[in-house]
Amino acid sequence: MGQWLAVTVNGLAFGMLLFILASGLTLIFGLARYVNLAHGGVYLFTAYLAIETYTRTGSYWAAAGMALGSAAALGALLYALFVRGRAWLRANPLPQVLLSFGIIYVISDLMQARYHGLAQSLPLPDLVSGSVTVAGATVTEYRIVLVVAGILVAVFLWLLLSRTSFGSAVRAGVDDHEMLSAIGRNPELLFASVFAIGFALIGLSGLLGSAFIGASPGVEYTIILYTLPIIVIGGMGSLQGAFIASILVGIGDSIGKAYFPQLSLFLIFAIVVLTLAFRPEGLMRNA
Amino acid sequence: MLQVRELRSGYGSIEIVRGLDLDVAAGEVVALVGRNGAGKSTLVNTLMGLLPARAGSVELAGRDVTKAAAHARNGLGLAVVPQGRRVFGSLTVDQTLSLARRPRGWDLERVASVFPRLAERRNTRARSLSGGEQSALAMARALATGPTLLLLDEPSEGMSPHVLRALTKVIGELRAEGAGVLLVEQNLSFALTVADRVLVMARGHIDVSVTGDQARADPEALSRHLVLKATRDQQEERK
Ligand SMILES: Nc1ncnc2c1ncn2[C@@H]1O[C@H](COP(=O)(O)OP(=O)(O)OP(=O)(O)O)[C@@H](O)[C@H]1O
Ligand SMILES: [Mg+2]
Predict the structure, then answer these.
(1) ipTM (interface predicted TM)
(2) A interface toward B at CB cutoff 8 Å?
């Protein structure tokens, strides 16, 4: 019993970290119809940046500000440089994917040059560095932080999209961006904000993940390996789908690692195959 | 109010609007008719800035807006009710109207005074509204931006006689406030009840212009003209 609970909570924690990553992608794909897969690179960049900022300043707030701020700026920059007004790129997912990988290569090399391929991680704040034992299961406090953070992000996005005028504008832009423009809203500005918010979420995962899975060469591809199944299982563009799929993938991975270590990735891709066979558009159709 | 000179636009290698001149004065309702495919919607979309003008000029309230984006034109008082309504399916009536609303525009109360049904359905998503309600919402959305020049592209399509009367009332109110209206309409009898001037579009430009009174005095002449034009155009295309 205790071990099962621990395995589940551990999986949930990893799942929520993946959800924060996937929510960034989902937001950008769902609202701007743009396939951004540069998130692995952005994760690596913001994780290293958070660690270095903390090392230099000793402030977690500074680390958070740098990770989220630089990611948001990167998102807006990417939009301004490559997406805005480029009808061809906007209409074709393949070059979007290729561009994403180009960005990852650039970031990987830059990180290699600056951090010499050293694996680093952010030291945990004292407040959450312990562990708790409930019903015979011992779980580190930081995993609980991750679960709470994932839930907060889900609630935040839901409120943002359904309860604010920014959310209305974004949904209107998805429905018909020409008509949005015809009632006086600048759709370009809106899509740039969506890119900034989506990237900021990836930056948040870099910050949170830097104290969990850390920053090291290759982690950018691990991230992609774990988030792609989420996007496929959840259904591209669906935040609810991404949330449920993240939990499935996180717990699936955790169970796999605990009980049949050689098969842990197999388990995840088995879920992908089953989804594709029975619900090819994902668990949630674009919601 | 609106001044269009030598306007050209189209799709790819096909030019649809070919050197068109058009004026709409403040407080004037101009009806634009023409056969299917004459290019009326292409003109409306070009005027709104949804389709780029290839040549010529568009002036709005004395400002050159030929190159301006749609949202900038809307800021200068131009609004559109597009063909096919194009409401925001995932937004409720309330959300649509508050998104579109400018201080000088219509609020829900004023919208309710002409389209009471919309107020009753204020918390319904647009995609769940009936066709007539969606038409009313598309109207209300444009009015919420406070237009001084309103482009209407076949607004009567699919409207019940009841909603059509409300539309007539709205056009009357706009005229009384000194706003201009360009009304693209297939329903000739409806167009004639509200128009100060009637234009016929053919071969990419304005072919005929008559006053509303002339058209009302002899509506047969206008429809004959439309039919005649249509057959002549088809003959020309065949050559
Ligand atoms: N997006 C488009 N791409 C290419 N051609 C188009 C496009 N939209 C319209 N056309 C063509 O342009 C011509 C004019 O179309 P338009 O919709 O402007 O006519 P209309 O006068 O509004 O017709 P209707 O009365 O049926 O609404 C038609 O031949 C149409 O097939
Ligand atoms: Mg048309």
Answers:
(1) 0.91
(2) 165, 168-169, 171-172, 174-176, 178-187
The answer to whether position A183 is within a domain reads yes
> What gap in Å lies between CA A2 and CA A130, rounded to an integer?
18
Q: Per residue in B210-230, is it b (16+ CB within 10 Å) or e — as a string? A: bebeebeeeeeebeebbeebb
- Cβ partners under 8 Å of residue A17, min gap 6: A146, A150, A205, A208, A209, A212, A213, A250
Kindly list the domain boundaries of chain B, sorted by start residue: 2-77+147-238, 86-145
Q: What are B91-138's pLDDT values in tens digits?
A: 999 999 999 999 999 999 999 999 999 999 999 999 999 999 999 999
Domain B2-77+147-238 fold: Rossmann fold (3.40.50)
> Considering only CB atoms, which chain A residues are within 8 Å of B90?
171-172, 174-175
A183–B86: do the CB atoms touch at under 8 Å?
no
Q: Whole domain around residue A212: which residue ranges? A: 2-278
**A285 within a domain of the structure (yes/no):** no
Which pTM does this prediction carry? Answer: 0.84
CA A257 to chain centroid: 22
pLDDT in tens, B57-82: 999 999 999 999 999 999 999 999 99
Measured between alpha carbons, how far is B53 from B66 in angstroms, rounded to an integer?
Answer: 7
CATH number, domain with residue A117: 1.10.3470
* CB < 8 Å to B99, chain A: 165, 168-169, 172, 183, 185
Could you give the number of structural domains in chain A? 1
Structure tokens at B11: 């799709």
